[in-house]
Amino acid sequence: MSDTSDDNSTFADAINGERLAAIHDVDVDIYAVLGTTTMLVSQLLKIGRGAIIELDQKTTDPIDILVNQELVAKGEIVTVDDNLGVTVSEVVKKTVGG
Questions:
Q1: Domains delineated in the chain
Q2: Half-sphere exposure of 86 (CA within 13 A, CB side)
Q3: Regarding predicted confidence, which is higher, 95 or 56?
């Protein structure tokens, strides 16, 4: 007599594995938005190396994390050794119809 719960979980694991494999090669664009600003094209053309662009957020404000142009989370900037990173502090729940 076989245990059907083991058979069902093995089948479910196989289906979930196939679904996961199907998305492994999907490209997504991820953006960590530190802030925004508005400027004239003439100002943009004058920007050179080392220029400082003032943004509309403070360094302590949470940043937006976008996936394919959709807000999915809020985060904070962190440093790891000499590298910058982002830690997710809040997942943004999408509202139905919004």
A1: 27-91 (2.30.330.10)
A2: 18
A3: 56
